[in-house]
Structures are given as C-alpha cells and as structure tokens.
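Hey forum,

I'm writing up a methods section and want to include a predicted complex as supplementary material. The small molecule is NAP. I've pasted the protein sequence and the SMILES. Can someone with a working setup run it? I'll credit the forum in the acknowledgements.
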Amino acid sequence: MAKILVTGAGGFVAGYLRRVLIRDGFKVASVSRSSIRPIDGERVLTVSGYDDPAIPDVARGCSAAIHLVGGGQQTIHHQYHDTNHFPAAAVAEACRAADVPRMIYLSGLGVSPDATSGYFISKYLAERAVAGSVPEPVIFRPSYIIGPNDHLTSNLRRQAQTCAITIPGSGRYMMQPISVHDAVRVLAMAATGGAFAGRTLDMVGPQTTTFAEYVRAFAGPKTRIIHADMEEIYRDAVLGRDPAYELDDLGIMVGGYVGDHGTLRRITGMQFRTIPQMLQSGGPA
Ligand SMILES: NC(=O)c1ccc[n+]([C@@H]2O[C@H](COP(=O)([O-])OP(=O)(O)OC[C@H]3O[C@@H](n4cnc5c(N)ncnc54)[C@H](OP(=O)(O)O)[C@@H]3O)[C@@H](O)[C@H]2O)c1
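Reply by user p_vandermeer:
Happy to help. Structure tokens for the complex are below, copy them as they are.
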C-alpha cells in the first residue's frame, strides 16, 4: 500500500486525516512540532521546524505528502511567512530531494495572484512554492472546514457559552463550509487519484449560506444573537480588545468567498454533507 507523508500532523484536519489514512490501509509517516501519539503502525517524527533535515529521510518512499501546516492569525512571534509560506516551501524542497512525486497543499478559498491581505499573499506564495517543486502538485482552496473543534465552531461555541453570539454587521456575506469528514476523504483520494495531479480545486461543500443564516442554524432557539456594528467589531479587532473575531477572520468572513463544488463532486464522485448535517456534530448545546 502507498506510503503518505503528513506534515502539520498535530492540527485539527490532520487528527481526522491520519485516522482515515490508517483505516484505509495506507502507511503513514507524520511530522509535527508537537509530540503526538502514533496511531497503529504510524511513524511519527517530532521536529523543531519544517526545515528539519530529517524530513527528506522520512519522506523517501512516499508517493504523496499532504501538507497541513498553516494558520490564519499572525503575532509578533509567528508571522504569516513563518506559518504558511516558509513551511510549505521547506516541505516542498524536502519532497523534491526525496523524489516524492505528489504534494497536496491546503491553501485557502479566495487566494489568488491579486491577493492584497498578508494571509492570502502567504498562502499564494506557498501554492507557488509547492507547484514549482514537485511534478504532481495538488492545491486545495478550502472554505471553512467544519467539525466539532474547528476554529469557527470553537469561537461560536465559546461565544454561546458566555452570553450571546455576535454577528458583525448584517451578516449577509456568503460562505460555503465543508465537513471535515468530507475534506479528509477528498485528501485521502487525492493522495493516489490520477484525476487530481496538477489541479487547483476549491474545497467547498454543496451549499452556500450567509454568515447570519449559518449562525442562526448553529445557535438554535435558545442562544441570543446580536448584530454588532461592523466598525466597532473591526476596531476591537484592530486594537486587540478581546475581539469576538480576529482581524483576518473578519476579512475572510466579509469577503464572502464561495467556490466551485461541482468539479470537486465530479472528480471524487462523493456525496457531501449538507450544512444541517455538519452542524449536528458542532452545535452549542
Ligand atoms: N480549518 C479550516 O477551516 C481551514 C480553512 C481554510 C484553510 N485551512 C488550511 O488548512 C490547513 C489545515 O488546517 P487546520 O485547521 O488543521 O490547521 P491548524 O490545526 O490550525 O494548524 C495546523 C498545523 O499548522 C502547524 N503550525 C501552526 N502554526 C505554525 C507555525 N507558526 N510554524 C510552523 N507550523 C505551524 C501546526 O503543526 P504542528 O503543531 O503539527 O507542527 C498545526 O498543528 C492549514 O494550512 C489551514 O490554513 C483550514
């Protein structure tokens, strides 16, 4: 069975993906900066950074690498280059050195050469680094990946537990979430499927919705919802005053990004979970 390298193995998506790959019979070699517990037969390499010279050795013999390192917030200690562009370029170089033909990268929905935000720029540069290093790059641009403990669900649940959920402004900006269970099925298929090689694909679910509708469905009848003034929400985020949403989260939300689900469905032949099905596992109560 094929051997797959998973980088960023300590993260949210990786936790689901590693279990699915092992269950499907793949040999899995996982790399993380945190000490993660191996799942049945999995090889784990703990590194201090993604330019660790041991990574090409672990990658050798893999038919694909699935790179899940990334983040949507920056601090003085970890800027977007450190979280998105640099690790992707370093792992792409490790794949090239180890003759790993395919590298699968999770970018972000809305990423394009016209990007102006630091987050999107770092993701775009990471895409280019991957595309320029391996013969079979596969780039996915995901919308919100929804599971019991994703970033958005954790935020909404935390707000619901305090007093109310805040919707910035009208909430009439669009989104097209995908279930983490579907996202990892797609990634497992992309590790070996011929139809994926060289493609850039939106990783979006079958339904679009507005953020306000999504929050209402998430909250249920008992949780209060507040529409807050957009200017105030942005000011809290800019000034770091315990904001309900971080600055770049707001940019992505208000950007209202939706994508092409049809191509993903055609290539995978999968039936994807609807928004109500995604919410069943992630609601507040
Ligand atoms: N979840 C979503 O809704 C969503 C939406 C769009 C795009 N994406 C992208 O999909 C990928 C996986 O998402 P996820 O939700 O699983 O991400 P995550 O759990 O937030 O983070 C994934 C991993 O990135 C690594 N990482 C974070 N900050 C780092 C830094 N400063 N330097 C080096 N490594 C760092 C960590 O790997 P280790 O601790 O294992 O080293 C972490 O476990 C990411 O690239 C993300 O940007 C996710």
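Some notes you might quote in the supplement: The CA atoms of residues 159 and 179 lie 21 Å apart. The mean pLDDT is 96.
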